[in-house]
Amino acid sequence: LFRSDEPDTFDVLDAVLDEPPTTHAEDETEQPTLALFEGDTATLYPEQRYCLHALLKHRYISADHHPDHWAVLLANQAVIKSQLNNLFLDLHVDREHRIAFKRSATPEGGDQLPSLLRNVSHTKEETIVMISLRQRFFAQRQEGDYAVFVDRQTLLEEVADHRPETATNRAMDHKRANNAIDGLVTAGVLLRTDDPDRFQISAVIEVLLPIEKLRALWDWLKTTNGADEVVSQDADQTDDELDMLFDTDGVQE
Predict the structure, then answer these.
(1) Phi and psi (nearest 5°) for 62?
(2) DSSP 120-151
(3) Where are the strands (E) in the chain, listed by range?
(4) DSSP letter, residue 165
(5) By three-state DSSP, how is residue 171 classified?
(6) In the chain, % of residues over pLDDT 70
(7) CA dist 213 to 56, 96, 181, 242, Å?
(8) Strands 61-62 and 89-94
(9) pLDDT tens for residues 150-204?
(10) Around Cβ 251, how many Cβ atoms within 10 Å?
(11) CA angle, 163 as apex, 236 and 152 as ends, to 5°?
């Protein structure tokens, strides 16, 4: 009779069925999910999404006041920039001043791109305050001061010094000056401290007002003060020199 040393086929099959299934290490580890809510199909990691959200919500983020977001941004700049580009927004990162913000993308052709942002035109009083902040920030940084502070009263006096001789409604002028200061606090140019009437000047002022724009605004201010009539709000809004580099999205902070 033919005799084989090979085991019977059924014996081999039974042996296989009796063995427990092989478990691979990668099967035991659950694959991480990026979903944060039901139906979430996002492709960014949570920390990237929080950073992107901060850029969209705030007028800018900085290493000093948003250290976690700043670190994530530097490590994932290309990814976050791409997400902003999908919304016709561009990302500006100033590593010297450690500040980043969004702005409307500029098309290569002449076509206008849709924008989620709106240009902000500053009042005359805001312009005076910003010029003062820029000069003070530069001077004290040159002296080695990292953090630069200013009092509300100092800014009010600065605005008053630039009041045209024809302006006689001092109460209204004082109100406008206070509103200008409060507006720059909301914009993040002035940062609150424990004292409600004392502010830290954000380094963003140097980004908003490079030396060329500072000179142009100073010339504009001297010309305006030399005029016989008070500049109206409408005139402020149509003057190109008052259109800052900053875009805002109207989101409440």
Answers:
(1) -135, 160
(2) EEPPHHHHHHHHHHHHHHHHHHHTT-SS-EEE
(3) 61-62, 89-94, 99-104, 118-121, 149-151, 190-192, 198-201, 243-248
(4) T
(5) helix
(6) 73
(7) 26, 19, 20, 10
(8) unpaired
(9) 999 999 999 998 887 777 788 898 999 999 999 999 888 999 999 999 999 998 8
(10) 10
(11) 90
Place of tokens 């902003």: 84
Q: Do the beta carbons of residue 51 and residue 80 sit within 8 Å?
A: yes
Radius of gyration of the chain (CA): 30
**Helix, strand, coil shares of the chain as percentages rounded to 5?**
45, 15, 40
Dihedral over Cα of 112, 113, 116, 120: its sign? negative
Give the tokens for residue 236: 């402020």
Pairing of strands 190-192, 118-121: unpaired
Q: Whole-prediction pTM value?
A: 0.65
Both tokens of residue 91? Answer: 């990302």
